[in-house]
Amino acid sequence: MLQIFHQAQKHSTRTAIISNGEHYTYQNVLDESTDFTSVLLGNAFDLAEGRVAFMVESSFEYVKVQWAIWKAGGVAVPLCTTHPLPSLQYVIEDTGAEIIVVSPQFEDILRPLAQEKGIRFIVLGEETKTRTIGLLEISTERRAMILYTSGTTNLPKGVVTTHANLEAQISTLVEAWEYASTDAILCILPLHHVHGIINVISCTLWVGGCVEFLPEFAPQKVFNWFQKMAQLSVSGIFMAVPTIYFKLIAHFESLVVEEQQALSNAMKTFRLMVSGSAALPVSIMEKWQKVSGHTLLERYGMTEIGMALSNPYHGQRRAGFVGVPLPNVLVRLVDEQNKQVEKEQAGEIQVKGPNVFSEYWYRPQATQESFTEDGWFKTGDVAIIEEGSYKILGRSSVDIIKSGGYKISALEIEEVLRTHLAVKDCSVVGIPNEEWGETVAAALITSTTVDLTELNQWMRERMPSYRVPRHYKIVEELPRNAMGKVTKNDLKKLWNS
Ligand code: MLC
Ligand code: AMP
Questions:
Q1: I need a surface site. Which of 405, 415, 486, 489 has the fewest CB within 10 A?
Q2: Domains of the chain
Q3: What pTM was estimated for this model as a whole?
Q4: If you take atom 54 of ligand 1, which residue's CA is the nearest one?
Q5: Atom 6 (ligand 1) nearest CA
Q6: Are the beta carbons of 46 and 136 closer than 8 angstroms?
Q7: pLDDT digits (tens, 9 = 90+) for 377-429
């Protein structure tokens, strides 16, 4: 049996999940996921790494389906619940999903596609348990999950992790941040990325803690939850991206002093508050310290590796730094020849360890190119070590943008823009933004007059809203170097001026 289920059995009577006002014990999650395993299996004995794409809101049902896929020997492919159809279709087709599972509210979006492609389609609530099954023995070397991440290729790539990878990603954090069965955590992050899936849900469920779901982020609801935890004297933990802390601070500042005081007192009772997925501005860290009494623990991670670097749980957390390697994670900084850099020199972060993913789905060349000959994963992030702690300086590729904690490929947006009839050429960059980290900006050379509002709507129908440019400029030509390549750093100045 996979370790996560062994762990759950140890805490069978404890509350694992609070979702839509209902409480579920670990035994409930184990039993209901086993029932759903039999639905997934039908007459089969083992899904044998068949991909199961599932579009299920952040809830008990999400965990039930995820665990059932693993129990049935399948590969979990979580779909973003807010992506437009073309993005969903891309993931379903790229993974070659054999089954699609949806909550009823998403049925209309995906049923036509499933019918057209002949993919088995299961709507939650309509399924019937077919038979009683015994649990399969699943090797930890088997593929467990595929998450899509943007990179320096124009289309997102599927990052494949095995059960052994996931167990390593979970156990390093459990050890470093001392997750405990007495912990309660609020899940507000999307569940198609590692931050929400591993750090929030899986680590907490690994130790017998309680995950409460808030299907979408709303500052007042988060603050209400903080107060509820304080009233119940629960050991609260909270994890989010910097943009969420920015939005919480903005909301906090709009409250009257008495409310602020009550909230601050509640937050002080928390055990831990963490920030990650994008650089935490020192200004947000300092403001949050005033609001909550917490020095945020900043850590660094990536879809391909889970978490790699972390400020200490005990000890001083330094603003602007991401700390040191987590247990069992090897990290080095190298120059362009993959040679370790001298002390206090900047270099690319490379990572090795059981936490590192196994492959990009069906992209052997991209997989090979992302590792050195001696097996280090090349992150593309540049850092320096100062007084023993890593500081992220940026990324080696200007084409990767981080906005609201989401990784975005400038090239992917350019490809889509170029398919618009009026766009002759274009170039996309990320420009600094206090709230979002970066926002997407597009310079366009157009052949006819373009209504930018219409163009924006056209983009929204084709890609997730966070990838749609927030700023446009129509230009006569794009700045280029002697080789004819667009000089994106010059382009960024268009919006700075
Ligand atoms: C949304 N909006 C944006 C935007 N995203 N504007 C600028 N830039 C962006 N990136 C706009 C919308 O168009 C809308 O405006 C308004 O903001 C509200 O949209 P929303 O989608 O409802 O936003 P909200 O719910 O407030 O979402 C913000 C957020 C979300 C921060 C909660 O972006 C989020 O959950 N981010 C987390 C992503 C994450 O989990 N990343 C981890 C990846 S793993 P209008 O005008 O249309 O109404 C990883 C590894 C690691 O990175 O280390 O963890
Ligand atoms: P993703 O591919 O969505 O998993 O995003 C991973 C990327 O997020 C990393 O390669 C970094 O560029 C960025 N990232 C994650 N955590 C941090 C952090 N604490 N500071 C700066 N960048 C971060």
A1: 489
A2: 3-138 (3.40.50.980), 400-495 (3.30.300.30)
A3: 0.97
A4: 277
A5: 466
A6: yes
A7: 999 999 999 999 999 999 989 999 999 999 999 999 999 999 999 999 999 99
